[in-house]
């Protein structure tokens, strides 16, 4: 008696391997698995469910930014963060799979130099952006509205504040401070406070 096994053999899974691999890498920036593909840290201007970008929009934004000029993954993260006034910063786990997908689709090229990957738009990518121009414009306008609502210099201030906190944590982790070191750090902090108050 012969038993038929549906989808259990080698050939049963063959048609799904490519699909599974793409989603395992985080296709669409992780949209289908509910990852942090556009959740905002607060404030107006977000999309549905508090997201800055709806399904598929992050890929369009990334493509539009590398169409402006070739960029590294880290530069894309900081550019999006700046344009969103620090309310949203996409993680590397979202940006790099999105860039990989753009490359696989023929919408982006990648060049390696000094251990970094530089991504640029292709002619196919420009055509794809042109075909989706209304969605691109809507996503970029949403970031601009968020930035206007939160004020221009906020991302720079947020980064500077975090840098100060990090410097203090790292120094304190190295060991106890003597009286001279405590005085030096306190004076530096006091000077910064005075400078900020007078600006």
UniProtKB/TrEMBL annotation:
Residues 1-51 are annotated as: Disordered. Residues 64-130 form the Transcription regulator PadR N-terminal domain. InterPro entries: Tscrpt_reg_PadR_N. Residues 1-20 have a biased composition (Basic residues). Pfam families: PadR. Residues 21-39 have a biased composition (Basic and acidic residues). PANTHER family: TRANSCRIPTIONAL REGULATOR YQJI. This is PadR family transcriptional regulator. The lineage of its organism: Bacteria, Pseudomonadati, Pseudomonadota, Alphaproteobacteria, Acetobacterales.
């Amino acid at each position: 008696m012969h038993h038929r096994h549906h989808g259990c053999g080698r050939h049963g899974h063959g048609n799904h391997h490519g699909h599974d691999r793409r989603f395992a890498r985080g296709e669409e920036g992780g949209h289908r698995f509910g990852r942090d593909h556009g959740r905002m840290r607060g404030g107006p201007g977000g999309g549905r469910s508090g997201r800055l970008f709806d399904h598929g929009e992050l890929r369009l934004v990334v493509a539009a930014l590398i169409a402006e000029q070739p960029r590294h993954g880290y530069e894309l993260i900081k550019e999006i963060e700046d344009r969103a006034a620090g309310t949203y910063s996409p993680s590397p786990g979202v940006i790099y799979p999105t860039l990989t997908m753009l490359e696989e689709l023929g919408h982006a090229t990648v060049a390696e130099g000094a251990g970094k990957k530089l991504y640029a738009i292709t002619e196919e990518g420009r055509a794809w952006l042109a075909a989706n121009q209304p969605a691109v414009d809507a996503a970029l306008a949403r970031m601009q509205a968020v930035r206007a609502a939160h004020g221009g210099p906020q991302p720079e201030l947020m980064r500077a504040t975090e840098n100060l906190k990090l410097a203090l944590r790292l120094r304190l982790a190295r060991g106890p401070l003597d009286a001279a070191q405590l005085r030096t750090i306190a004076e530096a902090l006091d000077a910064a406070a005075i400078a900020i108050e007078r600006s």
